[in-house]
Design brief:
single chain; 339 residues; alpha+beta; seven-stranded mixed beta sheet; 27% strand
């Protein structure tokens, strides 16, 4: 069977297909592509057609990284991985595009369950287990179709106690799309980075995401205040049937005040108001990694109740021999960061 590959220019066509695939994240959404375009990245949106029927999509982001130019395909491509001919069409097309664009490799992280079967499938297709992760691969999801009372009942006892206690500190919460307010998030994230030693994100990225997702009511910036002092801030993305706890930062001021619990409880209520199925707390530590740098935040997130979903780890498709320079560099960096 022959599949025709076309670039998709219509947001309506793209979103109609992507949302019908029941995606568990926003990483193949139209606005995720737009966020990267605003940041200066070159993007491609491809559709795979069987005759005139759209049967697959793929958002490709070109990264001009110092460690080697490459393509990113986060949360995708959205194709039937059991359809050998469709998979062959994707591989043939992406390899040719990669060579034309002079990138060293293609990094994919499709939303497939992490399992021995799927790992074997990707190895058989010529992929290599990537040295680094791509976005949140280990996630924690709360069912928000339950009543607030049932959600509270499903929390860890200590978490439930702190959530209830958090309402007694005179905190207020605001939500905004004002791009100037992202500086508050940036400042709070800098404090968080200093405490936990991870690589933060730029204020430009925060602005880009609010500008793109925000105009479609798919994102808000939430800030928790103690009088006029911001304590914690987060960008929440709403896409499909889920809300996503995406970027955040907090201060060490007023440490006795559980402002992060106050934020989460209020966001959960907003997810419920939007009649969404779930709230995705985003990244947590891999299973069994008690010394992982996300161990602390994992304890925090899992305390709210929910279930773990582990996606297939990122895989690389080498296109150039230079890829192995990237492989060695990223492997060393991973060890240094304790990932």
């Amino acid at each position: 069977m022959h599949y025709e590959v076309k670039e998709i220019q219509s947001k309506e066509i793209w979103e109609e297909f992507v949302l019908c695939q029941n995606p568990k994240s926003f990483l193949q959404s139209w606005n995720w592509g737009e966020s990267h375009r605003v940041m200066g990245d070159k993007i491609f949106r491809f559709g795979y057609y069987n005759k005139s029927k759209l049967v697959g999509t793929c958002l490709v982001i070109k990264q001009k990284a110092r460690r080697g130019p490459h393509f990113l395909i986060p949360g995708g491509p959205l194709i039937d991985w059991h359809n050998k001919q469709l998979v062959a069409s994707f591989l043939g097309h992406i390899k040719k595009l990669a060579r034309d664009e002079k990138v060293w490799f293609v990094r994919v992280r499709p939303e497939l369950e992490d399992s021995p079967v799927n790992r074997k499938l990707f190895t058989s297709l010529g992929f290599i287990f990537a040295p680094m992760h791509l976005h949140a691969e280990n996630t924690w999801i709360l069912d928000t179709t339950k009543t607030s009372e049932d959600i509270l009942a499903g929390m860890r006892k200590n978490t439930r106690y702190i959530v209830k206690k958090s309402t007694g500190f005179g905190l207020t919460i605001t939500d905004t799309l004002d791009e100037k307010s992202t500086q508050i998030l940036s400042n709070l994230q800098k404090e968080t980075v200093e405490r936990h030693g991870f690589v933060g994100f730029s204020d430009r990225l925060f602005k880009a995401q609010l500008a793109t997702f925000g105009k479609d009511n798919q994102a808000r910036l939430y800030i928790v205040w103690k009088k006029k002092v911001p304590l914690v801030a987060a960008i929440i993305i709403y896409y499909g049937n889920y809300g996503y706890y995406h970027h955040s930062g907090s201060t060490t001021k007023f440490q006795q005040i559980p402002s992060s619990y106050f934020l989460q409880w209020n966001v959960i209520q907003e997810v419920k108001k939007r009649n969404l199925k779930g709230y995705n707390f985003w990244g947590i530590a891999p299973l069994g990694r008690k010394k992982h740098r996300f161990a602390g935040v994992t304890t925090f997130k899992t305390g709210f109740g929910g279930e773990r979903i582990d996606w297939l780890h990122a895989h690389d498709l080498p296109v150039s021999r230079n890829y192995y320079l990237t492989f060695v560099f990223e492997t060393a960096r991973k060890l240094l960061r304790g990932l």
